[in-house]
Amino acid sequence: GDYGGRFRPQVHFSAPKQFMSDPNGLFRDENDTWHLYYQYNPRDLKFGRPHWGHATSQDLYHWENQAVALSPPNDDIGLFSGSIVMDKNNTSGLFPNQTNGVVAIYVGFLSFPVPLIFVCADYEKTLSETLSDGSAGPQTQALAYSRDGGYTFTPFKHNPVIDSEARHFRDPKVVLFQDRWILLVAYSQEFNMGIFSSPNLINWTHESNFSLHGLIGSQWECPNLVHLPYIDEKGQKQNESVWTLFMSIDPGAPLGGSAVQYYPGTFNGTHFKATDSVARTVDSAKDYYAMQFFNGLPKDEAVSMAWASNWQYASEAPTDLEKWRGTMSLPRRHYMTKTEDVGLKLVSWPYNLQHVMGETIASKNSVSKKTIAIDFSEVDSNAIYWEINATGIPGKETIGEPVSLNFTLINPSTLEYVRGGYYFGARHLIDFGGDTPLFLDRGGARGFDNVFFTDKFFVSSAHYHNTWSLSGVLDRSIMEVFLNRGLDTATTLYFTSQPLTVMLLSVSDLPEGMRVSIHVNGLKSAWN
Length: 528
Ligand code: FRU
Prior knowledge:
This protein is mostly beta strands. It is built from one helix and 33 strands.
């Protein structure tokens, strides 16, 4: 793979070539190596007949591409998304003399390249010769095991391990609950998340369904169940943690296409119960999907990655010019907190970004009533991290004129840009706390013609305790912003013919006591 192209992210993961989508099988092994597998089409720059690509890392930024870990047995089968656990105690019996057994459970999908409708006649035969004993399908849950720590896998002889009459039945996520394995799987078009349990990863019992809750969309995919640390409004870590169910919706997300939603709740080993009926999404823009959490982490660590794209245009994005398509989000660390407006709320923050942090480009402690320009054209990676902090924001009674804050990331010759802005104390919203949502606009960096690649995003995010912050990572064709230290996030792809090299920041007249600061750092390429 050539990681030098102008669209190629330098601190985000992308596959060496061809088409990549969902992260799969995320786990950290007993030597603290992080494993990332992903939906991968080795033959084309578009979605089709997925394999499991594989990469490993010591820090989640510097990746070593590995050989494809799982390949379909024949051309009619695709290996869809799934997850991995370490079977340290050999509960499966597949690892007689080792403590680092690795088990992948994933979807075997019989349909490629023949459209489903033509498959029926040969269907049972093909299934029994390949993945299954021929009972149902076409999407079944299959198991493969690895005796070399997750590099090569052998399909289990008696696949599938879970079967169903449902046509859309996929994305098994396995986690350990006390001494039992729990598996979540989506009955995608029935809007059910099936919850199964097993003592050995092979024989599964259906325990319950979590159904029709929150945003429904048109399909449910990629469930996750995580025990999230809880940090209260005052920043105090609490002993309790919050079971949280995540799922991905596609199509039919609020902004169109794909999005991830989550439900804080309780889990007793067989049933998940949501705390309330509030609909919550993880990310407020259009390029954040199929989020998955790493297995194999200590109890109070929750780390995820997502695929930074949207099925509405995933196979169209213009990076095919460089012979690759598909970017992962930054690795994110999470916890649960509480806010006045929505109650329980997920916090997301880049995981140990210091592994790629470069030199300070600008650091201004007080910005007011002017536009400042920060030139980062000297940064080799073209990738930067920034942080804008506002403190001393007056209460809504005293703010007077609204305060505006606008930023633009631009190429001064082509005038291509992405931008955003925020208004503190907007008059017409005073009864609602006074702030407008953050807006983001990638209209100056479209790069290809696609009606679903919409420009404008609004991230609703009030300020708390008179402070506000906006942090961001800009990385050649992807921007991720984090508001208020991760209370809200927005991830957007953008495409420009020339790199963005200047950041403009304009702030209107500030009321007394309010201060705005900005810090910008270059990021070091993880690929060169
Ligand atoms: C989510 C998804 C999954 C499926 C996979 C196929 O993006 O649709 O439901 O397993 O992609 O690549």
